[in-house]
């Protein structure tokens, strides 16, 4: 039997199963790649929010990463919650020693508004992590954190992309899902500073969107692991996430998750 492509997520755990490592591995399985994981933090969270978070030591993160990459290998890496400057710097060093493409999701806050990245880590994200990224995937809140740009229009998205590219990633994907100016569309901008790709999809009237950012970044990484170029991987990931949002379901008393298995359930 042939081996599937290999994809590694470096992120925090979500005990509710909607985001983080759990969402990443579900996405990778759904898209036909073998998912592997490096846990950076453990959270106690559910549909209502994050009750607590415990960061793992840098040596534990490094040991997990080296154990996977040195023995099994990897064809794409996705990073998510890194929480502190020490972990950001540790993961940036590991990525620098890895030839595989890297999708960096600069996770700042949870869907419920809970902080997942220390303010003191922002400079390390800008100067150490983003230069290692093949694709950086900030949402509008993370754009504001990283660049100071408040996005209210498509022109603002261009300015934000230029600012993010200034930190060194090869491509920037500015996720405009929260852009109020496009009530009927979810608009994202992918650019490398030369080519522009505007990705538009219907905005679904569904509040159960927990894990959207993790799922999108993991879907991009899965596409890259399969050999797609960046625009192809991002376009396919956008289609997958749009379907997952449409199929999002209630869970608990708060915000439910997107449905990572929507393609299976719709058959």
**Can you summarize the main beta sheet?**
9 strands, mixed
Question: Looking at the structure, what is the overall shape?
Answer: globular
Helices, by number, come to: 9
Radius of gyration: 17 Å
* Helix percentage range: 25-40%
The low-confidence runs, each spanning 5 or more residues with pLDDT under 50, are: none
In what range is the share of β-strand residues?
15-25%
How would you describe what is shown here?
It is built from 9 helices and 9 strands. The protein has helices at residues 20-30, 58-71, 85-96, 122-129, 140-147, 154-165, 212-225, 230-246, 262-265; strands spanning 6-14, 34-46, 49-55, 76-79, 102-104, 135-136, 171-176, 185-191, 196-202. The protein has a 9-stranded mixed sheet with strand order 3-2-1-4-5-6-7-8-9, sandwiched between helices. A hairpin with a 2-residue loop joins strand 2 and strand 3 (49-55).
Please name the defining characteristics of this protein.
globular; alpha/beta; nine-stranded mixed beta sheet; 267 residues; single chain
């Amino acid at each position: 039997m042939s081996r599937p492509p290999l994809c590694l997520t470096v992120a925090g755990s979500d005990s509710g199963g909607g985001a983080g490592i759990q969402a990443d591995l579900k996405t990778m399985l759904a898209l036909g790649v073998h998912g592997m994981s490096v846990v950076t933090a453990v959270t106690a969270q559910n549909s209502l929010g994050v009750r607590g978070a415990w960061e793992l030591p840098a040596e534990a993160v490094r040991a997990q990463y080296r154990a996977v990459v040195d023995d099994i290998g990897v064809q794409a890496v996705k990073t998510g919650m890194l929480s502190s400057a020490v972990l950001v710097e540790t993961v940036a060093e590991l990525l620098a020693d890895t030839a595989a493409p890297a999708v960096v999701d600069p996770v700042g806050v949870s869907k419920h508004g809970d902080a997942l990245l220390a303010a003191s880590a922002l400079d390390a994200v800008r100067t150490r992590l983003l230069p290692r990224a093949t694709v950086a995937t900030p949402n509008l809140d993370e754009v504001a954190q990283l660049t100071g740009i408040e996005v209210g229009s498509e022109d603002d998205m261009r300015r934000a992309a230029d600012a993010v590219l200034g930190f060194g990633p090869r491509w920037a994907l500015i996720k405009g899902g929260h852009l109020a100016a496009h009530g009927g569309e979810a608009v994202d901008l992918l650019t490398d500073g030369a080519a522009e790709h505007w990705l538009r999809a219907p905005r679904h009237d569904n509040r159960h969107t927990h894990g959207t950012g993790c799922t999108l970044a993991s879907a991009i990484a899965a596409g890259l692991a399969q050999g797609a170029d960046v625009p192809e991987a991002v376009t396919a990931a956008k289609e997958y996430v749009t379907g997952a949002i449409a199929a999002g379901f209630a869970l608990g008393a708060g915000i439910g998750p997107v449905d990572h298995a929507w393609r299976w359930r719709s058959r």
